[in-house]
Amino acid sequence: MVEPHRSPLNRARVLEAAIALADEAGPDALSMRSLSARLGVVPMALYKHVADKDDLVSGVIDTVVSRYPAPDAGLGWRESVRYRVHAARAALERHPWLRSGILQATRQSPAVLAHLDAVAGDLARAGFSYDLIHYGMHALGHRVWGFAPEAFSPAPGAAPAPAPDPAQLAALAAAFPHVASIAADSTARNPAGACDDDAEFDFGLELLLDAMERLHAAGWVSR
Amino acid sequence: MVEPHRSPLNRARVLEAAIALADEAGPDALSMRSLSARLGVVPMALYKHVADKDDLVSGVIDTVVSRYPAPDAGLGWRESVRYRVHAARAALERHPWLRSGILQATRQSPAVLAHLDAVAGDLARAGFSYDLIHYGMHALGHRVWGFAPEAFSPAPGAAPAPAPDPAQLAALAAAFPHVASIAADSTARNPAGACDDDAEFDFGLELLLDAMERLHAAGWVSR
DNA sequence: GAGTCAGGTGTACGGCGTACACCTGAGCTA
DNA sequence: TAGCTCAGGTGTACGCCGTACACCTGACTC
Asked: DNA-binding region(s): which residue ranges (chains A, B) (predicted)?
């Protein structure tokens, strides 16, 4: 019945399959049941390799983050941090579900810690105080993972603008004039209509790096 | 059998009960079934007042956000924005589940739009260009909702440090020296040990407001 | 007095994570 | 060689979830 000598599962193969499944079908499709089906195995078999669902997604995050490339050693702190953040952003583009995974996983993972440690190390080597590094990284927030903390569209995979009829749209513009003006200004500048995600992301990133540079030079101390 | 003339449900009462339930038992306990039980009604009855679960949580968010107080009209743009952001933060403290709700809800809500519009309005009245307002609010990100985009502990309600044994801790410190140094520096400054969330939040907020002020004065334009 | 209809009911389906008992076969030891 | 251990896969079951669909009921209208 069983394939002769089907090599036994292990954690790495489970995680790899989970990544592939999420890539193909999105984060919601990553269930213990569908994953086990993909591996030709019964759902409970996964629990021999993974403590629970949370451990699974933490492991997936860990696997992906552990593959972030490292910047050249010779780079300045700013280029180095930027490189790491953009590397995270690039991974996010290849695995859009990563965002929800990072938001969902609760177990701390070595690779995740290593990424944070590396960013902190870039700053420490440049002479930043750990006090400033600490506060600065909190200010950076999710940006160190390559995505901005969006206040607008919480779910980036949701319905893409349900074609609002003009009357409704006019009412909206009247009720929320400033939001409407932002939209108008934005489409005037970029007729394609959508936000320029990359530009906005880099705007925020450089803003914060600038600020940290200035505070470092000024000998900032907390409180 | 039924209570005589039990007043019929309506959307507002459903949302109010949902808020109370979330306050008492957390966001995970807010299910259609438990909510209906609380209202003495069968689960499907809720669907007469709410389109689906997502509509429920969107409605809850809308209700809470619509109660954010408004700053005095005479305030400067900076005080006004700060007031709104801190008002959101205060609401978050009263309803910790709000964070997960905001992250989870996908339907756009009038109150949410109004909050964003109000912040944008504060800036617009001070003469900021909509271009800068747009980019600036993206940089602010979730901070306009009163919570920082945490890169460290994704789930603020999770296990509170599982008392790691010293050997393990030393190994961690060796593997992640910069993270360890940050922790050491932080506990040296604040023997209580924990991060000073408020100080970190305000640090990031003021950083961004400073930057926006400077860019505005310099006549910044995107691209 | 018949019709409409808002609002509450009951049943059911298909999904989820996972506890628990069990089986199986390879590898070791006596 | 007989028996043991034990890692790894199985099968069944439970309790939860959101919600589709058909139904009932009682108030209000023409």
From this structure: 31-50
Q: How many CB atoms lie within 10 A of CB B114?
A: 18
Amino acid at B202: D
Contact A134 B186 (CB under 8 A): yes
The protein residues having a beta carbon less than 7 Å from any atom of strand D are A 2, 8-10, 41-45, 48-49; B 29, 31-34, 43-44, 47, 52-54
- Cross-chain CB nearest to B139 (options A116, A152, A203): A203
**B41-CA/C9-C1' distance, Å:** 9
Homologous superfamily of the A70-158+190-223 domain (CATH): Tetracycline Repressor, domain 2 (1.10.357.10)
Spatial CB neighbours of A35, under 8 Å, sequence gap ≥ 6: A14, A17, A18, A21, A46, A56
Maximal CA-CA distance, chain A: 72
Q: Answer whether residue A157 shows pLDDT above 70.
A: no
CB contact under 8 Å between A120 and B149, yes or no, is no
> On chain C, which bases lie within 7 A of the protein's CB atoms?
6-12, 15-21
Name which of B114, B178, B199 is nearest A124 (Cβ-Cβ): B178
Long-range contacts formed by B165-168: CB under 8 A, 24+ apart: none
Please tell me the distance from the alpha carbon of residue A88 to that of residue A118, in angstroms, as a whole number: 13
Nucleotide nearest to A41 (CA to C1'): D9
pLDDT given for residue A1 in this prediction: 36
Buried b (16+ CB within 10 A) or exposed e, B84-98: bbbbbbebbeebebb
Per-residue pLDDT of B151-208, as tens digits, reads 776 555 554 455 567 787 888 899 999 999 999 999 999 887 678 899 999 999 999 9
Q: How far apart are CA B191 and CA B176, in angstroms?
A: 21
Query: How remote is the C-alpha of A146 from its chain's centroid?
Result: 5
Residue B209 has pLDDT above 70, yes or no: yes
* Domain extent listing, chain A: 70-158+190-223
Instruction: Using the structure, give the distance in angstroms from the CA atom of A31 to the C1' atom of C22, rounded to a whole number.
Output: 25
Give the pLDDT band of residue B38 (cuts 50, 70, 90). Answer: very high
